[in-house]
Design brief:
Helix content: 10-25%
Strand order of the largest sheet: 8-7-6-2-1-10
Number of strands: 12
Strand content: 35-45%
Shape: globular
Largest sheet: 6 strands, antiparallel
């Protein structure tokens, strides 16, 4: 009897862990099936295209994507990529986001599709003339795990560093909330890309 009781307790604990590991709303790197991977390969999709799966509860009314530049220890919206608001269809639940860029200071594209319906896409082109010194390198880190979506809270999707330094520490995008960690490393250019979902309508 004791053995059965302990087994029930263990199953209950495992069930609790599973529930905790799978939030009701989340964003994560896209999981492509074989057919989708074949289509992506046919279309020439490469590492400059980054896909994310999104699960919502059907009450979101807008999605906001913002690009930031690190300046004086704080994140400041970057005009070239700026921030965009996208109205979501009523009762949107399952979707996929695609971000296409190599250098966030140059061309940038975002696209979204929810519940298998038509997609919406937006593109920007950087207006600044880039005059990078010789030896400038770039590294980008992306969201790599399932992350809970909380309405009104930004989720960092990518951090990009442009620097002439020989050694580059590429932190998890969660360090977006600790910009001082990047500031003290002295990189010439640090950018961030975030997404936020809201129940407020697009104004």
């Amino acid at each position: 009897m004791k053995r059965i009781f302990m087994l029930l307790v263990l199953l209950a604990l495992l069930a609790g862990c599973s529930a905790e590991a799978a939030p009701a709303m989340y964003i994560q790197p896209a999981e492509l099936n074989e057919e989708e991977e074949a289509i992506a390969e046919l279309l020439g999709a490469d590492t400059d295209q980054h896909l994310f799966d999104v699960v919502l509860d059907g009450t979101a009314k807008k999605m906001c994507v913002t690009a930031y530049e690190l300046a004086d220890g704080t994140w400041k919206p970057w005009i070239g990529g700026g921030g965009s608001g996208m109205a979501l269809d009523e009762k949107a639940k399952e979707g996929r986001l695609c971000f296409g860029f190599e250098d966030l200071r140059k061309d940038f594209r975002e696209a979204a599709q929810f519940d298998g319906r038509g997609y919406t896409a937006t593109s920007w082109e950087g207006t600044e003339d880039l005059d990078d010194p010789e030896g400038m390198g770039r590294t980008t880190s992306f969201l790599s795990n399932r992350t809970e979506i909380v309405y009104g809270q930004e989720i960092p999707l990518a951090i990009q560093i442009n620097t002439t330094k020989n050694q580059v520490l590429s932190y998890n995008p969660e360090y977006f909330f600790q910009p001082e960690e990047y500031e003290k490393l002295g990189y010439e250019h640090v950018y961030a890309l975030t997404v936020m979902f809201s129940q407020e309508p697009l104004s």
